[in-house]
Structure formats: structure tokens, C-alpha cells
Amino acid sequence: MTTGVGGDDLSKTLERFRKDAAEGGYHLNPDEPFTRSLLEGILINEGRYEYPACPCRLATGRKEEDLDIICPCDYRDQDLVEYGACYCGLYVGEAVHEGLVRAAPVPERRPSRSDRKAKKTVRVGDGPITGLAYPVWRCRVCGYLCARDKPPGICPVCKAKADRFERFM
Fold this sequence. Notes:
Elements: H1 8-23, E1 27-28, H2 32-49, H3 63-66, H4 76-83, E2 91-92, H5 94-97, H6 113-117, E3 136-139, E4 145-147, E5 165-167
């Protein structure tokens, strides 16, 4: 599937990721050789597993177990807010993109495999949803919902800023 650094697949993937990042209010790492190497890893994983697993984490090859590390991973937004870059460094915050600051090292926040398997079951009854590990945030502009410690910096649907989110539950 991949043709190596500089190949057509890699160039197309780079342009697609740039476009998607810009449309979502995100930035790719400005170090193009580094970014290309990460995207090459994503293409390799896509060829192996048929989904674009993060190249910096071990994928199981079972999509249902790896949904949280399909690029962009579930941890990207929180990593960007706290450290200025995502775990693998593909996505960076604006200050890092502009060269004003360096990204801080990003610790792994993905739970261990056994912790992922022991996730609480969400029960929906007559009352609110219980058993969630994170608060649920709602975009007041478009209604987008997400569960994480803090709201995303930018809504992936309508591009509203974090201040337009409210705690939903």
C-alpha cells in the first residue's frame, strides 16, 4: 500500500491530513520529515490492520479494541491542551506550530489493556447515565457530545471554541 517517503500515497495522505487538520482548527507538526515519517507509519498500519492506527502505539489488529488509537486518537485534544502536542507529535497546538514554544513530553494516557476491558458499563434508565469515567460535554452551538476531562479546544463539527461547551451531565 505504501510507496515509502516521497511516494504518491504518502504525499496524498499528507495533503489529506493537512486539509482535515485545517478544517478542524488543528495543526500538523511543522517538521515535515517527522510528520511524513508518522504518516508513513499510519499508512503501514492501515495496510496491516485496515485502519489507521497510531504509529506510536501497539495495535492489536482488532479494530473494536483499537478504536481509541485510530488517528486522530481519542487522546489528541486533551494532549494538545495539556502538552502542546499529541502523544506521537503529529498534531501540535498553535504556539508549537508557530515556533513560540516547544511541545512538552506527553505521557501515555491510554489505559492498560486490562483496564480497557474492565470499563464500567453505562446504564441508561429513568435517570441520568451513570458509570461514566469522564464528564460529558455538549457544544451549545451544534449539540456535539463528548466524554473527557475537559471540553475539546474546538468543536469538531461546528468549530466553536471550548468556551461554547457546557457540562452535559
